[in-house]
Amino acid sequence: VRPPNGDPRDYLSWAPYHWPDCNWCANPRTHLSTGTNVTRNGTETWTTCPYVVRDGKLNPDVRILNGVNAVADVTQSVLYNALAAILVPTSANAKTYAKNAATFIQIFFLDPKAGVYPELQYGQLIRGPGKEVGQYLGILDFRGMVKVANAIQLMRNAKIPDWTTTLDSQMVAWSNKYVQWLTTSDLGKQAGSAPNNHGSFYANQVAAINILVGDADGARTALQTYFQNQFKDQIAASGEQPFEAVRTRPYHYRCFNLEAMITNAKLGDYLGVDFWTARSKYGATIQTALDYTMALNPGKESIVDIFPHVEAVAAVYGDPTGKYAAFLTKNFPAYASATYYFYDQPEAFNVSPTSSSKGGKEVLDATEPHQLLEEGGHPVADEVTTTAKPPQGGSDDDPDDPLPAPTISFACPAAFATGTEVQLDDGIYVTCDELKPFYGYVEEEDS
């Protein structure tokens, strides 16, 4: 299966929540039905049937393509092999690990016959008659580029012989083209202005790639832009994330955006900029969002989505009451053996609230215009059809305390400045009125 232009080096993925709306069966129900028992092949369905959206319902045939799974596998493998080569340099397999990390990058990105082009015109493409171009949503497929940037930094610092100056210069050239496409193309600009997790993960990529190519100022600017814009509207006073809570799998999407927010703060920490204490316009921090989500009952969704983020927040903000350790011990007793446990140790951070080195660094004010690695994923769970209610209790000392209420007058998020609805995902849109209750503004009914 190739993209519409026929070039196998162009990245292709299909919109995950789009389903064909053709009833090709012996008892036709629509004008698209054939009224016969003729078997249709997949490609005919892809180009002939109109497609409809079912939020949270993954169309299994999107996995026919290597697309997003290949990106996830390569980026994770590159990071793990780089880490293994450095952490166990005397191992008999150390040279194999190092060679793997370099080879995977060379084949996937740089090979002149098979390497992927540094632009994503056909990501999350919507199939059907007349569909030729992908969506900005497809940029999310490459969120694992943070791992690649991390791995390359590790190999550079460790002077891994397999990571040659030639490979490094070639990957820098590829990455420069990619970040240029991200920041100047129409699809990239749309992703960069997305108010929800898509915008958060976009900032991950732009910042990480700029670090990779040596543009620290560009990385700081990308993070500053995010924290001064999307972040301001992403967390309510209670810690709720309205743009994620409105979805059909709200627990998953809250955790998903937590992953992106934490990664952005980690990248800032690497650059010496404190975004851990950045606040939304309602006064909430990343920790506030984690605490709120941690107190929710995930219902039919998977609680494992939150585990890496609990560990990260504990390492960054501290755990004086032991609530984070207690949560992980209760729900995942083996958490100390998970990879994210080793990523998220207090010593890994430079400017976090608990960092021992914070006093020796200049902590830049994340709210000033001139100022300005990564969470593990888990399989998504089944769809839930109702939105979870806010947790009861607002403090560790007294669980019966009410949750923080908004202290400012409600104004629609900035994303609504140019329209009455904004896109959240594949064919999913939301209005300001639909989000308002999640910010804690409930209209009183007339008596």
Automatic annotation (TrEMBL):
| SUPFAM superfamilies in the cross-refs | Chondroitin AC/alginate lyase
> Region Disordered: which residues?
373-407
Q: Gene3D superfamilies annotated for this entry?
A: Chondroitin AC/alginate lyase
Q: Ranges for the Alginate lyase domain?
A: 3-295
GO-annotated cellular components = periplasmic space
Keyword Signal carried by entry? yes
Entry annotated with the keyword Lyase: yes
Q: Would you tell me the protein name for this molecule?
A: Chondroitin AC/alginate lyase
